[in-house]
Amino acid sequence: MASASFLKWFPGTLYNSSLNVVVLHYNSVRHELRIFPPSVQFDVLYKLYKYGCLAELRGELCSLDVLTRMLKVVDKRHLLHHCFQALMDQAPGDHSSKISSLLAQAYVQRCNQDLMLDQQQIDNLVIQGLAVSAFLAEAGWLPDAENILTSCQGLLANSTEPQQMTRALECCHRLLHVQNGYCRFEEAERTYNQAMQLVRQLQQAGASPNLASLYSEFSTLYMLRSNYAEAYSWSVKALQALVANFPKPPLIDVLRQSAKACVLKREFKKAGLLIKQAVMIATEVFGDKHPKYADTLIDYGFYLLNVDAISQGVQVYQTALDVRHSVFGGINLHVAIAHEDLAYASYVHNYAYGKFTHARTHAERAIELMLRLLPEDHLLLSSSKRVKALILEEMAIDNPSKDVEKKYLAEAHSLHKEALAMAMRAFGEMNVQTAKHYGNLGRLYQSMRLFQLAEEMHLKAIMIKEQLLGPEDYEVALSVGHLASLYNYDMIKFEKAEQLYLRSISIGKKLFGEGYSGLEYDYRGLLRVYSIEGNVEKCIKYQNILAYWKLLRDEAQETQTSPFNELTEPLRVTDTLNQFMSMS
Q1: Cellular component GO terms, alphabetically (predicted)?
Q2: What is the pTM of this model?
Q3: Torsion of CA 128, 189, 160, 254, to 10 degrees
Q4: Are 44 and 37 in contact (CB under 8 A)?
Q5: Is residue 320 within 8 Å of residue 346, measured between CB atoms?
Q6: What are phi and psi of 425, to 5 degrees?
Q7: Sign for the pseudo-dihedral over CA of 479, 342, 266, 213
Q8: What span, in angstroms and rounded, lies between the C-alpha atoms of 470 and 482?
Q9: If you ran DSSP here, which 8-state letter would residue 354 be given?
Q10: Which of 243, 252, 218, 244 is nearest to 232 (CA)?
Q11: How far is CA 430 from the centre of its chain?
């Protein structure tokens, strides 16, 4: 008999062969599927997906009860996303006919029958709503998740028992997460107030639910509204509420958000500790193909970009995009956001080299996807438009054709104005995001040689940032450096330019050290000022400083490793908290 090692074909397993037969005769046996365990039923549905039987798959997953069963197969959740996204892509443009919308409508209809439901049925319906909405939110179908959670909340509106009130609080937490993700800030404020009221009622009743995840979502709300001090405060409260046996999936989210809040407060050591722990735990719990792993990488990339590890940040963002794309396919909100993040990181990374094709491709893909998935005036589009505008401005400056330059600058201007209008509607003028848009317009007006308008925009940006963030923040330094460039290269105000450059350098060195990449532009600006003024002594001084800076940058490049090499073993929760609290 021939050895198996010499066979060119190996027979499939008996189980796999059985699945193939079931799929082949699906219409005859589909009513029997629900007697099988959830894992077996899942494998049949996944075979339908792999064989392109999407009509049959849709018929199964349109059922709330079937989807709820499939969500119990936790180790194949990313494969369920493959199936679901294929059905979302298959549907016509009208969102009401998409499977996520049909599931939400079915759930709302069930909840509207609450007068006919006993307490056990209500409890089961709440559990189902929390499970299905979590899946939809994870997949980026946030409005449908919000509809489910709003109805779920209605079932618990008059609860007086601590157990029911605790579930109502969990519903508020999930609803706030969805509203934050979709930039529904007015609705999120109402949910925040409802959650605070429930917390007080539970405490008065002697109940003590763990509030770490809820406080973390409060932090997210304040962060999105650019109240970074309050966001940091809530993130610390979330960390303090953690306990030794806290479940790992929500622990990852608490660590991620706390890391982002630390970044925005320029507490970089604390941020590094937290986000690296989050990545390691996500890898351990979910593996490297799960959307939660990708979510954590997005925040790791944000940290790396903000600590001036830009090339590492690009690597991490690219990996996050690859994972999201493999899970969700192309037409998905989470994929669009990953394209935008990678576009901005690539823009920053290649700024000194003038290579923006890669960044532009991802920025345009982000906008294309968002326009397919969101209303055209949605706030999430403002950031993508801003990124594309920044890229177009640099491409215009570098282009030898005046006609092409004019075209790119005009498009960048239109995008910046649209982004500013969106931010003004959402936040008003006194907001960091609005200030960023003013600063971007200032840079663009300088490129368009509209110097008075450029100065006006930069001064507005500096004023808002100083009031909200303080005079020593990185964002302030950024705007100060841009205004210095305007005075130096175009408005011939060398004394003002010198003082602004020195201020920008001081903040940059304080936050990032002497090897900070952004210092190059300030040093070169000062050299130009001193050269024109004929100040030989200071020219020599800053030539030496710039040479030393280059040496530091070269050393940093030589010692830089993969961002994934910096990850070792996750710590216990208590050890992470002790390290965090001991950091100055």
Answers
A1: Cul2-RING ubiquitin ligase complex
A2: 0.92
A3: 60
A4: no
A5: no
A6: -65, -40
A7: positive
A8: 18
A9: T
A10: 218
A11: 23
Could you tell me how many residues make up the chain? 584
Q: What is the per-residue pLDDT across 153-185, written as a single tens digit (0 to 9) for each? A: 999 988 889 999 999 999 999 999 999 999 999
Q: Which residues contact 553 (CB under 8 A, 6 or more apart)?
A: 515, 517
Query: Does residue 429 sit in helix, strand or coil?
Result: coil
Residue 510 tokens, joined: 């304080």
282-314 pLDDT tens trace: 999 999 999 999 999 999 999 999 999 999 999
The C-alpha atoms of residue 232 and residue 226 are separated, in whole angstroms, by 11
Cα gap 533→528, rounded to integer Å = 9
Nearest by Cα to 137 from 195, 53, 71? 71
Write the CA distances from 569 to 140, 203, 319, 565, 579, integer angstroms.
30, 37, 20, 11, 15
* Closest CA relative to residue 68, chosen from 96, 107, 31: 107
**How does DSSP assign 393-404, residue by residue?**
HHHHHH-S-HHH
Q: How far is CA 110 from CA 116, 148, 173, in A?
A: 10, 10, 22
Question: Would the pLDDT of 436 be above 70?
Answer: yes
C-alpha to C-alpha distances, 12 to 19, 44, 79, nearest whole angstrom:
11, 16, 20
SS3 string of 321-351? HHHHHHHHCCCCHHHHHHHHHHHHHHHHHCC
Q: How many Cβ atoms sit within 10 Å of the Cβ of residue 433?
A: 21
- Assess contact for 141 and 100: CB atoms under 8 A: yes
Contact 368, 173 (CB under 8 A): no
Joined tokens for residue 304: 């790396």
